[in-house]
Amino acid sequence: MEAKKHNTYLSLYCLIFMTSKVTMSSSTIIFMFILFIMTTVVSSSSPNTTQESPIEKRYKKWLSRYGNHRPSNMRNMNLKSRFEIYKHNVQFIDKFNSENHSFTLIDNQFADMTNEEFKGTYLNHEMTGNRTQYCEEGRNMNYINTSQVPPPPVSIDWRNTGAVGPVKNQSTCGSCWAFSAVAAVEGLTYIKTGQFLSLSEQQLVDCDTTNSGCNGGLEPKAFEFIKKNGLSTSNDYPYMALDGLKCKSDLKVAAAIDGYECVEPNSEAQLLYVVATRPVSVSIEIEFCFFQLYDRGIYSCSKCGSHNNNHAVLIVGYGHDLLTGRDYWIIKNSYGQAWGEGGYMRMTRNACDGIGVCGITQMPSYPI
Ligand SMILES: *[C@@H]1O[C@H](CO)[C@@H](O)[C@H](O)[C@H]1NC(C)=O
Ligand SMILES: *[C@@H]1O[C@H](CO)[C@@H](O)[C@H](O)[C@H]1NC(C)=O
Ligand SMILES: *[C@@H]1O[C@H](CO)[C@@H](O)[C@H](O)[C@H]1NC(C)=O
Ligand SMILES: *[C@@H]1O[C@H](CO)[C@@H](O)[C@H](O)[C@H]1NC(C)=O
Ligand SMILES: *[C@@H]1O[C@H](CO)[C@@H](O)[C@H](O)[C@H]1NC(C)=O
Asked: 225 with 204: CB under 8 angstroms?
């Protein structure tokens, strides 16, 4: 058993050696070193122990796909510990998927991170701000009297209209708030002008000093910034996933807004009426229920948000799934197109007494 373990780690280290660029002389030394270790291992174990277990094979495959894309703060952590975390996650994923849930999990790019590491690296740490400061009754809170307006369509998907651009990738920067706000402005700009423009998140990260760049922010504050300054295109002002860069203020303004409004909170009915008119930015709480490992299907979570919303996304539609009988929201995330359903998640709608799964109705806002 000991020898088998030893061999596992050896092969993982080999992978590293093989992928790193080494000079002739150092590769010779490494080769001799490997030969030495292998001799030691083989001589101390039965032939069977040279076989890789399925989980080892799976981890190797995972490493070749995602290993080079890990956040820099994790690249130097030893593979033994990473493998243990991965193994633990995969055991959980396999068990979860064997049960009858409305969604499945997968060992995606976050599969060798603990939930704590995921939270520390990707989540918005500035979202617990007092929303009543930005969304006030009588000022910019849009209450819709649903008995006075026609009912919204039973389903809508803004992706089919041209108002939603390709899914982007925030990388290892807590800038979800910028992606959510920019995607909302992209949607509104399309609805107003009939032209789709990819706009700049990095401009918000660099220039919006009311928010905190890679440490987080609030979409209403971002909309205030955009109202005052406009936004450049992402071509003119490309995303760097970095904090502390100098703000470029001499670029052409490509899109402008008049301001923003907030949706009456804690009501999925109110949210539905607004999403029928445009994509809407929402803050959600995602530290529960394995959001990070979502694969496909209709996500649900019995934790309904505790006003500790730590991620921002864009609602781009809603519908009803005949297979599971569930109503859902369509959520555009910013973890790249490989995450979830092509970068999107369907999240259970009409749950949690109006608060919504992950507290989705606690802080919705949109540009006008
Ligand atoms: C190796 O040993 C394990 C048990 O330790 C066994 O399940 C497996 O079938 C063996 N594999 C081979 C190729 O003999
Ligand atoms: C996201 O971007 C980072 C940095 O550019 C890259 O390393 C990573 O592979 C990307 N992830 C996805 C899923 O596209
Ligand atoms: C799985 O769930 C669906 C609906 O949620 C139900 O119709 C089906 O009978 C369940 N299957 C099992 C094996 O529990
Ligand atoms: C939030 O802000 C409002 C208005 O600025 C204030 O009245 C309220 O006391 C604040 N609530 C908390 C919990 O700070
Ligand atoms: C909504 O509109 C109906 C019909 O016009 C009216 O009776 C009702 O008082 C309104 N509700 C609110 C909360 O304003």
From this structure: yes
